[in-house]
Design brief:
The chain is α+β, with helices and mostly antiparallel strands. The protein has two domains: 82 residues, no CATH class; 129 residues, no CATH class. It is 19% helix and 18% strand. The chain is built from five helices and ten strands, in the order αββββαββαββββαα. The strands form four sheets. The protein has a four-stranded antiparallel beta sheet. Strands 1-2 form a two-stranded antiparallel sheet. A hairpin with a 2-residue loop joins strand 1 and strand 2. The longest helix has 19 residues. The chain is elongated. InterPro entries: Peptidase_M12A.
Amino acid sequence: MTFIDSVSINKTQPAIVPFDLDYQQTIGSPFISFIDLSMINELFGCKKLCNRVTPVACEMGGFPNPRNCSKCVCPGGYGGDRCTERERPNRRKRFSVIELMRMDHAIAFRRSSQLVIDELIRGRYVITENSRPVTLGTMPSIVYPKTRDHFPVLYQMVNKGVGQGVVLEAKDFFILLPDRRELHLIKLDQFATNVSTDTRGSDRSLVFVKDLVRVYSVEPTRAALRDPQTAL
C-alpha cells in the first residue's frame, strides 16, 4: 500500500519517492490489502484480544474481529459472520472496467497501419492538419473508447525521456502477431491527436510510465514524409 503525504516527515514530499519519478503515480495501492490488514492485527496483538473468549471459527483465511469476536474480518469477495458467504453485488456501487482487446481489433489495426505505409510509398498519403493543442492541466480520457473504422488497440507507456514525446509499447496483439516489428514501439508526440476531444498532444506532467493508451492508427514521422524509401 502507499502512504498519504500527511504521514511524511517532509510534508512537501510524498512519503515514498521512487528513484525514477515517472513511477510516482503507479507505485503501491491506495487501499490496504487483506494480508497487510491481517499482519498489522497480528503484530500489534489485536488478534489476541479474542483469546479471552471462544472466538468464531473463520473460513477462507479470515480472522476474528478484535472489536466483535463473534464475527470475522473477511478477505475480499467473502462476507457473513464466518466468511462463508459470497459478497452480493451492489447496484449502487458501480465501478468501471477496461474493455479488453480482441484479435479482430489487432487485425484491423495492423491493416490500417499497413495502409498508411503503402500510401506513403506510392506518394498518395495525405497529411492531416493538426487540431488545436490540448489544454494544459487536463487529461481527457474515456473508459470505453469509440469505435471508428475499427476498435483501438492497447499500448502502454514505457519511457518519457524522448523530447516532447513518450514511447509506447504494444501489449497483447504484438505477442500474438510478432511480424510487424515497427509496431512494437511507437512514439506518442505533441502532434498525436486525441480523437475523443479532437485535440493534439498531452500534458507531460499528467502522464506516467505504465499508463495505458488506446491507439487507433499511426502516422508517418517527418523523416518518413521526406524520404519514405529510406525511412521505411
